[in-house]
Please model this.
Amino acid sequence: MQLRPMTLACALALPLSANAQADTARTARDLDEVVVTATRTPVSANAVLAPVEVIDRDMIVRSQARSLPELLRGRAGVAISNQGGPGKLTTLFMRGAESDHVLVLVDGVRIGSATSGLVSFQDLPLSMIDRVEIVRGPRSSLYGSEAIGGVIQVFTRRDRGGIAPRATATVGSHGRREASAGIGGGSGTTWFGVDAAHQRTDGINACDVATPTPFDGGCFIAAPQPDADGYRNRSLSLRGGIDLGETFELTAQALLAEGENEFDGDFTDYSETTQQVLGARATWTVSDALTVQLGAGRNTDASDNFLGDAFTGYFETDRDSASLQADLSLAADHLLTFGADWLRDRVESDTTFDRTERDNRAAFAQYQGVLGAHSLQAALRHDDNQQFGEATTGNAAWGLSLGGGWRVSAGYGTAFKAPTFNELYYPFFGNPDLRPEESRSWEAGVALDAGAVAWRLDAFDTRVDDLIAYDAALFLPNNIERAQLRGAELGIDAEVAAWAMSGSVSVLDTENRSGGFNDGNELPRRARRSARLDVDRAFGDLRLGLTGVAEGARFDDVANTRRLGGYATFDVRAEYSLTAAWTVQARLANVLDRDYETASFYNLPGREWFLTLRWEPAQ
Model:
């Protein structure tokens, strides 16, 4: 979402007024960390009432992560499950909610498969990402379906200032070869950016089963397939914007990522995938008090599947969306946001679905205000879905600045998740009478921002009803399950003796409350304890860093009979600036060569090395 400088300044005046006593260092940091995902308006990260985390471009480059799942792994409230290494199916759980209970946006455009309900995180090219915003907790009151556990928004790169080129090249373990190049910039009223990237790896043996059976879970193979399963990804990103006069701005972007993925399977063992995101936005600054935005986009998620050279089927889903939003300043420190959203999901496949299209229309409104030391936020949304009918969701949050950088907050929100096309219409399996899954959440937090040290502790309790699961009485999926998700998250940023430190600790308690044999069990693939620590320091032209991720044990199945052990991994990295434009980076991942799984039977890489040469002249 592009914002004119005047619009941004006016929006920032609202949240920052509650922290007028902040010291200079903290104010500078706030101005750099502006988030839009939590409220659909630009707000200082320090003033957002919801728990948020921002990963900017400098942090992405410094981490030397090779993929988006790797960048997100171990962060507060986030659990990642991977099935066999780079490019393989990767699912993400937030605050213990289901993997399809997290809404994902790219430049404001909703993405994900309308058939499976999952997002192909592994296919989104990290080299083209400018920043990632993570918002934990329900946000259906602003975005509708899927935002039960939270929202993740990916922003592609934005180029301002003089026109400048850039390029990188990486080699590493398992035949890793990567290259990217781009150019971008602007002057006056226009800007543009173009980036292309290629990634290839021979991969590892995805499945590790000595004596498998076809339906034993995990890989679903009848005999071991001990070969390396490779992955390739080609991507292209185009962006641009223009200011038409003093009050009108147009922006547009396109992202295309094509993958080739090998894996172990008896029915399908190779797929060619496409992720495409198109979007455009017009912003009209009507006056100092009113800004209007009109946006539209399309996400295409497609795969052609093969067994050897034999074609086995294809799936393609399109998600067309449009939104109209107005932000009205009622008075100083009081902002009203209201608008309408439209979404259409369509499916094309050689599998015959009973229905291949549905529309969703919605209207929403939100109030944000500051009354002295008190901050308020309230939102309400009504969705009308062509398939399952109507749903109304809301949330309310309150914060109190106590002085000295201290703040407390509390909130309540409801959310829902629409059934997927597979659950509704898959031949002989779908149930068109399914209702949306629904949730209600309470949360409370306390935070301290003391300049050199900042931390935030949040606790939450979420109840999810009408969870969709297989019903043996109907031989179909049905709304028969319930769950309770409780936990706490602690995030810390500090600078100690010139070392920059960022860490998080998450505690999670999930409980199946559906009755029957699995009542009281933990939900699968969610660890009760997890933590991440990033440490970096610069010594002139040399920078050193370390990332540690630890997760406790978890179960891989709803019956809690298949246990996955806990683990801890450590990555070390270094980078050296050869000149102002040239940098060399080196990283050793999983230094201790830890053997672990996040999904039963699926291998993950052991110790790996990566070497990167980066060229990025100053603008």
